[in-house]
Amino acid sequence: MGSRDQLTDAMAELLWERGYAATSPRDVMARAGVGQGSMYHHFGGKHDLAVEALSGVAEGMLAQASPLEGEGSPLERMKAYLASPRPGTQGCRVGRMTQDPQVVTDPGLSAIVAGAFSTMLQRWEQAIADAVAVGELPSSTVPGELARTLAAVIQGGYVLARAENDQAPMDAAIRGALALLDAAQTAAHADATSSRSQETTT
């Protein structure tokens, strides 16, 4: 691994652990094990390094959501993504940046965070719309609203897990989200059965 990657990896770790405001270039260089010459050879300063590191973190978050865009049952893809491992007490790498005052007031950094969540919501919405189209979710489902509900459940799970320093709140939040989808699927099947019965009687 070259010094550039060492620096971006170190910055990504420190952003997760401490946030942008509490991370200094000296901290990054010490974590990366590189000198000042390497730091300023690759980056103009802390901000440039943070932009590259946070961009990589955002890409990683979206890569983990690949099940939402996979093949097969849309509902099963959603459940698979929800059930993927999440270390709740460590928090969401991207979500935690929304709590950093210097990130939310920095146009470049905040745009990366906003863009990551926007893309994530689009993927949720498409998977939900696909599930509605194939009858796995009720036709009354509003994809945008359900997408935001599920995203909020995940982020809320992180917050509660960190607040209690316990993985249990995250696991409970995910079980609740899965139960919500199961209930919606049951309702969709009931609606379909009712519609078929009405067609038969008429």
Structural overview:
With 202 residues, the protein is an all-alpha fold. The chain has 2 domains: 1-58, Orthogonal Bundle (Arc Repressor Mutant, subunit A); 65-201, Tetracycline Repressor, domain 2 (Orthogonal Bundle). 72% of the residues lie in helices and 0% in strands. It contains 9 helices and no strands. Helix 1 (3-17) crosses helix 2 and helix 8 (143-164) packs antiparallel against helix 9. The chain is elongated. The mean pLDDT is 92.
Quick description:
Helices cover 72% and strands 0% of the residues.
CATH architectural type of the largest domain: Orthogonal Bundle
Run of helices and strands: HHHHHHHHH
Radius of gyration (CA) equals: 21 Å
The span between the termini is 70 Å
Number of domains: 2
The CATH superfamily title of the largest domain: Tetracycline Repressor, domain 2
Mean pLDDT over the full residue set: 92
- Low-confidence spans: pLDDT under 50, at least 5 residues? none
Principal-axis shape = elongated
The percentage of residues in β strands lies in under 5%
Number of helices: 9
CATH fold category name of the largest domain:
Tetracycline Repressor, domain 2
How much helix, percentage-wise, in residues? over 70%
- Per DSSP E runs of 2 or more residues, the count of β-strands stands at 0
CATH class placement of the largest domain: Mainly Alpha
Classification by helices and strands: mainly alpha
Sheet with the most strands, sense and barrel status: none
